[in-house]
Amino acid sequence: MTAPAPHIPVLAEETVQALAVAPGETHVDGTFGAGGYTRAILSKGVARVFAFDRDPEAIQCGETLAASSGGRLTLVPERFSRMRQALAARGVEAVDGVTLDIGVSSMQLDQAERGFSFQGDGPLDMRMAQEGESAADFLNHADEAEIADVIYELGEEPKSRRIARAIVAARPIERTGQLAAVVRKALGHHPGMKKDPATRTFQAIRIHVNEELRELEGGLAAAEQVLAPGGRLAVVTFHSLEDRIVKRFLKSRSGSLSGGSRHRPAANQAGPAPTFEAVAKPVRASEAEIRINPRARSAILRAARRTAAPAWGAKQEGAQG
Ligand SMILES: C[S@@+](CC[C@H](N)C(=O)[O-])C[C@H]1O[C@@H](n2cnc3c(N)ncnc32)[C@H](O)[C@@H]1O
User: Fold this and answer.
1) In testing the pocket of ligand 1, which one of 128, 213, 220 has its CB within 8 Å of the most ligand atoms?
2) At what angle do helices 199-209 and 176-187 cross, to 10 degrees?
3) 170-194 burial code (b ≥16 CB/10 A, e <16)
4) Which atom of ligand 1 lies at the shortest distance from residue 216's CA?
5) For residue 304, what are the contacts with CB-CB under 8 A and spacing of at least 6?
6) CB 31 less than 6 A from any atom of ligand 1
7) What is the DSSP letter of 210?
8) 290 pLDDT higher than 60
9) CB of residue 215 inside a 6 A radius of ligand 1
C-alpha cells in the first residue's frame, strides 16, 4: 500500500479570516480531510468544532486530534448535506460558522488503492464513502450515451462521445491504469503534453460516482439552515462547475440574482427575504501559496454572513434525504 502524502490545506488562512472565528463559538467543518481547517479553527479558541467527512479513513485519521482537543472536536462520519440532522442528533440547533472545502484530499488522490488517480494503477473505485456504486460499476454497466453525457457535463470534455465509445469497446474496465490508457488512446497522447488527456474524464467520473454537485447544493442549503443569524459561511471550490453553484447560491440568497432562478419571484411579487448578506468578493490563492502547492491555482473562496431571515432551502437539503 502506498503511503498517503499529507494534504496541504488550501486558502486556510483566508478561510479562517472569512469565517471571523471568535473564542467560545461553535463551528462546522463540513470537509475534515486531514484536519487542516479544523486545526486552524480550534487554534482560535472556539468552544466546539463538528467536523464532517464522508470518508471513514479521514475520520479515523482525525481520532488523535479529537482525543487531544479536550472534548472540543467531534468527528462526524456523515455527508455534509446532512449536517442539520447530524447536529440535531447531538443536541445542536445553530452554529456560528460553516466551512466547506470541496473535492478530494491529497490522501485520497495519492493512494492508488482508492482508484481516484490516473497517475498510479489501482482498482477503479473512486468512492469517497467507500459504499455504493464504484466507478467500475458505472462504466461497465451504463450505456454509451449516459457515459458520454457524464464526461461532457461533469468533465467539460468536448470529445466525450469518442471517449465513451472507446470505453464501451474496452469493457470490462477494472483498473485506473486501463481506463487512463483507453482515454489516452482515444484522444491521442503525446509525450510532453501539458495536461494528461485523462484528466477531465477522471474528474467527471469521480464527481458522478460521489454525486458531488448535488452534495454541494445540499450542503449549501443545510448551512443556510444551521447558521445562526450573523453566522458565517466560507466555501472553497476547485473548478468552475462547483464555483458556479456557490456563486449562484449566494447571489440568489442575498437577493442579487439577475433573472433565471427558480427561486426568483415573478416581477413585482415580494420574494423571500435574503438569508445571506455581506457576500465577499471571491478570493484566490497568492502566487506564494501556488508555488508551494500548485493545487491552489484553481481554488476560489467565497464567503457570506447569515441574516436572521428564515431559510429558503428546506426542499433542497440532503442529496439522499
Ligand atoms: C479537499 S479535502 C478537505 C481538506 C481539509 N480542508 C484539510 O485542510 O485537510 C475534502 C474532504 O471532504 C470530504 N468530502 C467530500 N465531499 C463530502 C461530503 N459531501 N460530505 C462530507 N465529506 C465530504 C472528502 O472525503 C475529503 O476528505
Assistant:
1) 128
2) 130
3) beebbebbbbbbbbbebbeeeeeee
4) 19
5) 232, 233, 250, 253, 254, 276, 277, 278, 279, 280
6) yes
7) T
8) yes
9) yes
Say what the alpha-carbon torsion angle 40, 213, 155, 290 is, to the nearest 10 degrees.
-10
Query: pLDDT: is 5 or 235 the higher one?
Result: 235
CA of 258 to the centre of ligand 1 (A): 31
Distance CA 258, CA 305 (A): 20
Residue nearest to atom 27 of ligand 1 (CA): 33
Of 25, 84, 76, residue with least CA distance to 54: 76
DSSP secondary structure, 50-92, as one string: EEE-S-HHHHHHTHHHHHTTTT-EEEE-S-GGGHHHHHHHTT-
The set of cell numbers assigned to 153 is 457535463
Relative to the CA of 81, which ligand 1 atom is closest? 19
- Residue 31 to residue 37: CA distance in whole angstroms: 9
Residue range 195-251, pLDDT digits in tens: 899 999 999 999 999 999 999 999 999 999 999 999 999 999 999 999 999 999 999
Q: Ligand 1 centroid vs 128 CA: distance in angstroms?
A: 9
The one-letter amino acid code at 122 reads G
Distance 153 CA to ligand 1 centre (A): 22
Whether the model pTM is above 0.85: yes
Distance (Å) of CA 55 to CA 48, 131, 196, 281, 296: 21, 10, 27, 31, 22
Taken in order 272, 277, 282, 283, the sign of the CA dihedral is: negative
Summarize pLDDT for 125-174 with one digit per residue, the tens: 999 998 999 999 999 999 999 999 999 999 999 999 999 999 999 999 99
